[in-house]
Amino acid sequence: MEIAEGLDISLGVMSGALLRYAVPYLITVIFFYFIYRIIPADKIRTTVALAGSALFALLMEIAKQLFTWYVANFTRYNIIFGSLGTIVILVIWAFYVALIFLFCAELMSSYQRRDLILLERAMLKPRKSIMKVDERLFKKFGCAYEKDSIIFNEGDSGKEMFYVLSGRVCLEKVSCQVKKVLTEIGSGQYFGEIAALIESTRTASARALEDCHLAVIDGDTFRNLVRESRDVGIVMLKEFSRRLKNSNTALDELTNLWTRMIIVIYFMDHAPVNIEEQLPKLALLTKKDSAEIREIINELARQDIFFMKNGLITEVVRTKMWSLLDSGALSKCFIEDAYTV
Predict the structure, then answer these.
(1) Do 254 and 329 belong to one domain?
(2) Buried b / exposed e along 243-277 (16+ C-beta atoms within 10 A)
């Protein structure tokens, strides 16, 4: 009989604890699970929302017990505020609930953005923690390439960008059956971001010059990073601006070289000839004004490609005309940093 009574008491205690703590906890978890899933503009993963709501419910239970004990033993709001004391206590409780709610929401947001935060730290290069960041990047996005292995070929479709953790990568382009090395990418640099942003085909090939560790970042992750991080967006804009400037420089050099070659070939067929008489024809051919053409002719004369006397070009030194190609002007038309892949 005593055993049965003891068992009844234990069951009563357990059911009381269940109704007092477990059921409210589960109801809170379920309710705030849907709150965390519905309210945010970005979709919260189910597991993350469930963990966040469970943490919120746990903190709420703890806060509820502590707040009840504090109000019962250490406050005299009824003396200060009179009949409004209950409202003051309710406002304070709502404040603490809001703090817990926002704290859990921030934890979930940071957890979901952990990959973006890691990439942001890597691209902005905080020197104090760069090694730890690279190690974490390799664990999350890492891929190893052996020496001389092809990362991607020109013309391949691609949606990823690559961040070099260690080693060196060579970017190459084939033009007129000639392979041209555009640039070499070292540790801490990245490439392939154009294809990741606009999902275009690769405009160059990438080859590992030595054993490399790369972080392969998919296009969606990279676009989210650029959208959410102002600092990364500014870094990318600066890089694109630099490459655009180099491309413009290369085009200017190519245009100037082309103009000089036209002038040299023209006078090579017409020498000796009066310069002033030929300026209108050269202006039509090169789309330059007479003053610019005259300055180019004087420059070519200083390089001993033209011999001039009394306003006439008397001779074109054919052996020296190739110095235009050997002087570095042609190589500037392919500036190494003017690349997109």
Answers:
(1) yes
(2) beebeeebeebeebbebbebbbebbbeeeeeebee
